[in-house]
Amino acid sequence: MSEAAEDVKKPKEPLFSKKNKKLITDPLTDNNPITIQVLGICSALAITVQVEQAFWMSVSVIFVMVFGNLVVSLLRNLIPSRVRIIVQLVIVASLVIIVNELLQAFVPDVSEKLSVFVGLIITNCIIMGRFEAFAMSNKPFPSILDAVGNALGYAWILIVVALVREVFGSGKIWGFEIFGSNLPGEESGIYEMGYMNNNMMILPPMALIVVGIIIWIQRTRNKELVEEH
Amino acid sequence: MKALKKVIHNLDPKFEKGGKWEKMYPLYETLSTFLFTPKHVTKKGAHIRDGVDLKRTMFMVVLALIPCLLFGIYNTGHWHYELLSYTQPEQYGAYSDYLTGFGDKVVYGLLQVLPLVIVSYAAGLAVEFVFGFIKGHGLHEGFLVSGMLIPLTMPADVPLWMVAVATIFAVVIGKEVFGGTGMNILNVALTARAFLFFAYPTKMSGDKIWKSGTQEIAESNGGALPDGASGATALGDLQSFIGDSPVVAGENLSAAASNSEMLAKFGEAYDPIHAFIGMIPGSVGETSTLAALLGGAILLFTGVASWRIILSFFAGGFLFGLLMNGIGSNAYMELPAYNHLIIGGFAFGAVFMATDPVTASQTQYGKLWYGFLGGGLAVLIRVLNPAYPEGVMLAILFMNVMAPLIDHYVVQVNISRRKKRFKTKTA
């Protein structure tokens, strides 16, 4: 084959080109859906009391987002633009129903605790936002990467917030007591020395404050994120 | 004095940019301006030159807090020995009298209150220094007052580590994230108190904490306080009037007691004179209306606080108290309105918390509205919300948030009035 023929052919993009890598890494840090775009805050406040719930919520969102982005991207040329929001809603709703059934079947107690918030994934702005902003105008593979990036960006914030809230709010990680028992009358570990769980951590405002602190750290590290006044 | 000043100012170059100890500038600046007026003064133009800077203003407030602090120390000791007079009558029987064992009471109070003050200052100043070093400025003076206010709003028995955690939270989240002294939205001392109130409710409310040593005394007595003794505050007792088992100072009233009987009992246990002087259990510095008013007089005399806020805060509380009397559907609502002003932290909040110049309204009319609504809201929360016996803290924090809104409308009203005047003139 001559070299000229090679040149005419559009060079094939490597599977994980710089652009594609950026699709995953950007939403993890400098374009995080929660801390930078401030989307999906509602569920971040509601289900971050315990790590277990936050973990399953993250898994659900990753699932819904990856498959949703994939389906929307595959159908992108078939969806009439006037009814595209409704089509996207149908897609995300069917995926959420699948997730909900799976959670109920395999982790029923978590499903009970998450209750309505699994259903509310449908209205999670991050998902609809990625469908609309990315999947509708990109090929399937980059769409999957974009979904993975954004869902992981959502997930790590959720789990970090949940970790802080569970450790200081209930003295546990994933339900295991790490500071000892705090049952009245039979305290052990540091509870014996007068330590007490911080009730404020259980209340939703503290999730907002913890997210705020993460935003603060992020902006201190990267001054470009700070808005001009 | 002059010699010391010379010595210190000779050190200046070493701390300034390029100097040997440049990194230590914040520390140096703090100490030198603490001792002498700042070196950088207005050089041009016609300005009034005054030695009063933020540090000196803040000191006036600390000075005004001294009566509350001193009374709080005595009061803490008094209620501790009052409880002991029930369990060890042969030794402390006479201590339930206010003046007997004055020395013992003061010593006990000092041992309880001073650690609170020290921890609050140490934690807060440490945070301030860290932020000062990061941002390269000296210690911000605002904390001089907050550091004294925080222990005065705590029950005397609160664990010291909680005070430290609350102080650090309040200074970092309540103040430094907004840009430091002068930029905060919420009153720092009240933020600390609210944090503890929601984070560790068992140490900040209920009837086991207001008299120092209640828990230990109850434990040594078999789990409950001896008959006749009570750990509740006046507000806690009033709150019980709404429920099924009204209590006054440890005495169970029958559920069938009429409203006027309950209030008569209440008047006996917390008569207005004692409540005004502050001889009631409560947080360290909040109980004495008299001491708060003394402090208020100092603040008004030196022009630090706004009389508009203080006056309208009391007026708001009184009028809403009267309003409650008018509705009068339970014994708490029928409580004579003036009682609201002298129990709990009402006066302390009005004089020291609501008048915080940073978080209060800035306009003259705005201050009147701010104080009036704050006082009114405090009484509303007290009487109508069964979850919170004391409403002053939440009312002031809420008004802190509302203050910019009030100012906005005051300014808008003024603008539209002047526009109208302009139109009628030209028409």
What does this structure look like?
The complex is a heterodimer of chains A (229) and B (427). Chain A has a two-stranded antiparallel sheet. In chain A, helix 5 crosses helix 6. Helices cover 61% and strands 2% of the residues of chain A. Chain A has one domain. Chain A has 229 residues and is mainly alpha-helical. Chain A is built from ten helices and two strands, in the order H-H-H-H-H-H-H-H-H-E-E-H. With 427 residues, chain B is mainly α. Chain B folds into three domains: 34 residues, no CATH class; 149 residues, no CATH class; 156 residues, no CATH class. Helix content of chain B is 64%, strand content 1%. Chain B has 19 helices and two strands. In chain B, strands 1-2 form a two-stranded antiparallel sheet. In chain B, helix 6 packs parallel to helix 8. Chain B is globular, with a radius of gyration of 24 Å. Chain B starts with a helix and ends with a helix. The mean pLDDT of chain B is 87. Classes of the chains: A mainly alpha (229), B mainly alpha (427). Chains A and B meet through helix 10 of A and helix 7, helix 8 and helix 9 of B.
Distance between the termini of chain B: 66 Å
DSSP strand (E) fraction of chain A? under 5%
Could you state the oligomeric state of the chains shown?
Answer: heterodimer
Which shape of chain B, going by the Cα principal axes?
A: globular
Low-confidence stretches of chain B: none
Strand order of the largest sheet of chain A: 1-2
Shape label of chain A:
globular
Structural class by SSE content of chain A: mainly alpha
What is the typical, i.e. mean, pLDDT of chain B?
A: 87
